[in-house]
Amino acid sequence: MLAMKVARSDAEIEACYSVMSQLRPHITTAGDLLLRVRRQMEQGYQLLGGSDANRVVAVAGFRLTEMLAWGKALYIDDLVTDSTERSKGYGEQLLQWLTRHAREHGCAELHLDSGVQRFDAHRFYLSQRMKISSHHFSLDLRKPQA
């Protein structure tokens, strides 16, 4: 069973780097993660670390939000288990903690987006009784318009 803790200190946030960087490889240092997380915390982002024997092995970034489409909801920005620790139930433990947290805060729904290439993650989400409920569209604003 993982010990779950919402990261609040700089050290706790940086301890999540080695796992988070597996999902977000564009974040290249623990210091970069710290800056990004601190900035997002101003908008309600929280970082949950799951530790086994004092080492973070699973991480979830999430926020409580309210939208016209969903009402009050918990949105999962990031959910990842260390590649060397997968298939041990850690992702399920994170999702169970997040589900309880959402219910405790009066959320009607729990949501996340997942990259179309992440087939193993999709199998996991479907096994957790989640459903594919929409398509997510994006536009890269860094590219010049044609």
Average pLDDT rating: 95
Described by strand count, sense and barrel closure, the largest sheet is:
5 strands, mixed
Q: Specify the CATH architecture.
A: 3-Layer(aba) Sandwich
Which superfamily, in CATH terms, is the homologous superfamily?
A: Gcn5-related N-acetyltransferase (GNAT)
Number of helices: 5
- Fraction of residues in helices? 25-40%
H and E order? EHHHEEEHEH
CATH fold field value: Aminopeptidase
Based on helices, strands and strand pairing, what is the structural class? Answer: alpha+beta
- Oligomerization category of the chains in this entry: single chain
Strand sequence of the main sheet, in spatial order?
A: 1-2-3-4-5
N/C terminus separation = 52 Å
**Gyration radius, rounded:** 15 Å
Q: Unreliable stretches, pLDDT < 50, 5 or more residues?
A: none
Give the overall form. Answer: globular
Detailed description of the structure:
By secondary structure, this protein is α+β, with helices and mostly antiparallel strands. The chain has a single domain (3-127), classed as 3-Layer(aba) Sandwich (Aminopeptidase). It contains five helices and five strands, in the order βαααβββαβα. It has helices at 10-14, 17-23, 30-41, 90-104, 119-127, and strands spanning 3-6, 46-52, 55-67, 71-81, 109-112. β3 (55-67) and β4 form a beta hairpin. The N and C termini lie far apart (52 Å). The relative contact order is 0.14.
